[in-house]
Amino acid sequence: MSVDWITVAAQIVNFLVLVWLLKRFLYRPILDGIDAREQEITQRMQEAVHAREEAETREQEYQDQIESLNLKQADMTETIRKEAEKQRDVLLAEARERLERERASWSIHLDEEKRKYTSRLHRVGASAILALTGKALTDLADETLEERMVQSLARRIEPMASDLRRAAGQAAEAVVTSHAPLSQAGQDAMESKLQEVFPDLSVRFEANDEQSHGLILRIGGAQLAWTVETYLDGLDKMIDAQLSSREGSGAQSDEQ
Amino acid sequence: MTLSPDQNILFEIWGIAINATVFFTWVVMALLTLAAAFITRNLRPDVPPGRWRTTLEVIVLGIQSQIEEVSGRREDHLLYFAGTLFLFVAVSNLLLVVPGFEPPTASLSTTTALALSVLIAVPLFGITSRGLGGYLKTYLEPTFVMLPFNIISEASRGISLAIRLYGNIMSGAVIAAILLSIVPFFFPVVMDVLGLLTGLIQAYIFAILATVYISSATASSQPKKDTQ
């Protein structure tokens, strides 16, 4: 066993070289890497702390915003509710007004219908009365309705003679109009009656198919009518009274 | 059978004989350097460390913590020196199990070189730390009468280190060789396993003693300053 001093020197050099190599390739990279990693971790933790603080700040901001929005929402809800109530009142008023208008329109329509019904009833009633009366007179008394109406009118002339004379003034002609041309017997009866009351008047007979059945006597400004229409005026009043009573009872039942 | 690999000349370079001690020292150096360079070639702080890098970090931090425990402070230069001592001795001793490998630490020349390195490093670290006057003053402590004893003490440290390492490694290798010739199979394996253990223990003891010597030379100038 001996010491080779050349080898010793070589080994010292080798060892120093190894120290440098390991410092270069092992210790410094590892230690620097650890330091850098620690620094990185510290930096990331600081960033995380900052991020957390920022997140908390943002959270607080969002909470404030949410509270503000909730308040605004409550205000908006209240405003909308009031607006809706106002709108509802307006719509209700409009609806009531429209209902009133429709009711008025319906009333007008009802009146029109009533008038049409009355008119139709006039015509039908007049026709029926004329037919029945004419047939009854013809069958039972061998007379016509026009003749009977001439007689009836002639009876009415005399009580009203003073009024007619005053209304007639200076008229020189009396005009008798009928729906259909009067028979000769009817004309003669009428003319003789008028000659009795107004001897100075001439009598003229006319036919007017737009006039209702019956006779109308005109002397100047005076007029005496004896027609089915005037007869039916009473019937109209009766029908009006009947319809009014029906409407009253219908309204009561609607209210109930 | 040769007791020292110094006598085993492997080849010559430009007329210089390269013995097994130097050659296998180069092998260990190349192995350590290449492994370290390969593992640490792409270090980035944002990339998580792999298993090999973690292994190296454990080794380096383990050495560093041992040095801190002994010296009471973190000192990178001491880490380079003592850590390299430990790694070189440990790897050399562990490669004992490789067939044909002759551990350089089994050479008295190598252990002497390492001991001399420690012997030289102690005053260098001391002078670096305390200054030349401060270091020489330690030889006169506690009184100038102690000067020869302090010098003998310093010399005996290196000698004891060299003999300790050489004796353990060489004896392990020699005993394994003898047992291999007597009982070919079982006992050499057991002795090799034992040799691995004692090799690591010797590496640890060698590095720790070097650290103790160096830190004792530098301790008083920085009393516990960095330990907190």
From TrEMBL, chain A:
Keyword terms of this UniProt record: ATP synthesis, Cell membrane, CF(0), Coiled coil, Hydrogen ion transport, Ion transport, Membrane, Transmembrane, Transmembrane helix, Transport
InterPro entries per UniProt: ATP_synth_b/b'su_bac/chlpt, ATP_synthase_B_chain, ATPase_OSCP/dsu
GO terms of molecular function: proton-transporting ATP synthase activity, rotational mechanism; proton-transporting ATPase activity, rotational mechanism
Listed transmembrane segments: 6-22
Source organism superkingdom: Bacteria
Main location: membrane
Purpose of the protein: Component of the F(0) channel, it forms part of the peripheral stalk, linking F(1) to F(0). The b'-subunit is a diverged and duplicated form of b found in plants and photosynthetic bacteria.
Protein name (record): ATP synthase subunit b
TrEMBL record, chain B:
TM regions (residue ranges): 13-39, 78-101, 107-127, 165-187, 193-215
Keywords: ATP synthesis, Cell membrane, CF(0), Hydrogen ion transport, Ion transport, Membrane, Transmembrane, Transmembrane helix, Transport
Keyword Metal-binding: no
Pfam families: ATP-synt_A (PF00119)
Cellular component annotations (GO), alphabetically ordered: plasma membrane; proton-transporting ATP synthase complex
GO biological process: proton motive force-driven plasma membrane ATP synthesis
Cellular compartment(s): Cell membrane; Membrane
Highest taxon listed in the record's lineage: Bacteria
MF-aspect GO terms: proton-transporting ATP synthase activity, rotational mechanism
Membrane topology type: Multi-pass membrane protein
InterPro entries from the UniProt entry: Alt_ATP_synth_F0_Asu (IPR017692), ATP_syn_F0_a_bact/chloroplast (IPR045082), ATP_synth_F0_asu (IPR000568), ATP_synth_F0_asu_AS (IPR023011), F0_ATP_A_sf (IPR035908)
NCBIfam families hit by this protein: altF1_A (TIGR03306), ATP_synt_6_or_A (TIGR01131), PRK05815.2-3 (NF004481)
Function according to Swiss-Prot or TrEMBL: Key component of the proton channel; it plays a direct role in the translocation of protons across the membrane.
Family, per entry: Belongs to the ATPase A chain family.
Protein name: ATP synthase subunit a
Source organism of the structure: Roseovarius marisflavi
The gene coding this protein: atpB
